[in-house]
Structures are given as structure tokens and as C-alpha cells.
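C-alpha cells incoming
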């Protein structure tokens, strides 16, 4: 039995694939090194990420898979659900061992699982792009928090970089404790190692722009006035905007007395 550990990055997982092929030792389990439980009855193999090995595996996949399938593999990595590493490994191994394209071979469990995981991540990406709301700070930074089911922050930054190219902004994932910061030139990923009780979920009153609450109230008034009670359809509304996304929306926040 072979118990592999890696650093948790996508590049590290591809390095792990290279190591498994080089050793001809297929993994019994794969775990991130900070979560791993050493196996008592087998070989424990700690993989160190190497750019050259990552590149060789990815170049091999580019010859075997379409761009959509390559994206699906990366989305499966961002899916983060239990066992996702083994699913990715099995998919890559099947791709390398097959002479024909495997992308439509849904009889193979790993192919179907990758397809389903990628769809879930893609759906979450689009919802985050639609529902993220920024608040303006006193120093002109637009700040938003998210807590998505999947690690979609790397997928949504390009959308906001294009849409808000003329203003500084930051988006912070409260679940994964890292964020993206745009400084008018480029986006940088930043880590904040904060204890749970200090994770920012909204701006403190003292750091908000003086007009921020006014703008939120204006939006709520606008929403109330364009909303037609006779045409309410709660079931359809929840289908398009599930309740778990309401925390991002200004129009769903408690009304302040005016």
C-alpha cells in the first residue's frame, strides 16, 4: 500500500502523478500533508512539488485532453470534496493508458465524477460573479467577503478585474482565509491567517466610507419600488437566488430606519 502526501497545490498533485508513474506505485490514498494520517501498514511517500515534473505531466495531458477536459480537471481540484485527489489521479491514469479519448466514457466512474464536480464548481463560479457585493472603505477600497461551497476565488478574479478595472478592490474568502487584491495593475492572492473569531465578514462602521450606508439604503428603496407584489413567485425566486446567497445581497439585508 502506498500513502501519498503533497502540499495541497494543483502543481503538487501533478508532481504526485509524476512520482507515482516513476515509482510504478499507485496510490492507496492521497492527502494534503497537513491533514495526512500516516499509514501503519504501507509506504508513506511525501511528494515535494517540482515545476519540471508538473510541466511534464501537464504537457502529456494537453496531448490527451481537450481544453474543456483540462479545465474540468482543475475545477475538480477546486471542488475540494473528500477523495477529489484520487478522482483526479484515476482520471489522469485512464487518459494516459487509453489510446482513444476518454472524455465521453461515463461508464468510468472517474470520468463521470470529474464531469459532475466541474459542473458544480462552474455553477458556483457564476453565482459568485452575480451575487458578490462590494462595500467602499474610507480609503477608497471596495471590499467584499465570500464563503462559497467550493474554492472558486481563482476562477472569478478575471471577471472582476475586467468589470472593475478602474478601482481598487479586494475579495476575501472567509472559509479558506485568503483573498484576492486588485491594485489597478494586477491581481494578487493574499493570505490572512486569522483565528475564526477574527475573520472579517463585513466592514466595521469605523472603516466604511461615509456614504456607504446611504448607498445601500438607496438600493433597498429602489428594489422595494421595482418589486411588484402581485407578480411574486417565491419558488422561482429561490430557484434563481438560493437562500444561502442572500447574505451577499444588499436588498436582502434588514432595512434601517430612515
Amino acid at each position: 500500500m502506498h500513502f501519498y502526501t503533497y502540499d495541497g497545490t494543483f502543481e503538487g498533485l501533478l508532481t504526485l502523478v509524476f512520482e507515482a508513474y516513476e515509482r510504478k506505485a499507485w496510490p492507496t490514498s492521497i492527502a494534503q500533508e497537513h491533514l495526512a494520517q500516516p499509514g501503519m501498514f504501507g509506504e508513506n511517500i511525501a511528494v515535494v512539488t517540482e515545476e519540471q515534473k508538473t510541466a511534464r505531466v501537464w504537457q502529456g495531458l494537453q496531448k490527451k485532453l481537450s481544453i474543456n477536459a483540462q479545465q474540468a480537471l482543475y475545477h475538480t481540484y477546486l471542488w475540494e470534496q473528500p477523495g477529489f485527489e484520487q478522482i483526479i489521479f484515476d482520471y489522469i491514469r485512464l487518459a494516459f493508458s487509453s489510446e482513444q479519448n476518454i472524455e465521453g466514457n461515463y461508464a468510468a466512474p472517474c470520468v463521470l465524477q470529474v464531469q459532475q464536480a466541474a459542473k458544480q464548481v462552474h455553477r458556483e463560479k457564476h453565482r459568485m460573479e452575480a451575487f458578490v457585493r462590494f462595500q467602499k472603505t474610507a480609503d477608497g477600497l471596495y471590499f467584499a467577503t465570500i464563503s462559497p461551497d467550493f474554492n472558486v476565488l481563482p476562477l472569478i478574479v478575471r471577471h472582476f478585474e475586467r468589470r472593475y478595472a478602474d478601482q481598487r478592490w479586494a475579495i476575501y474568502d472567509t472559509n479558506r482565509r485568503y483573498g484576492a487584491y486588485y491594485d489597478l495593475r494586477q491581481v494578487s492572492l493574499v493570505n490572512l491567517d486569522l483565528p475564526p473569531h477574527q475573520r472579517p465578514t463585513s466592514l466595521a462602521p469605523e472603516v466604511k466610507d461615509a456614504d456607504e450606508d446611504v448607498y445601500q439604503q438607496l438600493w433597498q428603496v429602489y428594489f422595494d419600488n421595482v418589486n411588484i407584489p402581485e407578480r411574486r413567485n417565491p419558488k422561482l425566486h429561490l430557484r434563481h437566488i438560493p437562500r444561502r446567497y442572500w447574505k451577499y445581497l444588499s436588498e436582502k439585508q434588514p432595512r434601517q430606519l430612515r
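note: The chain has a mean pLDDT of 86.
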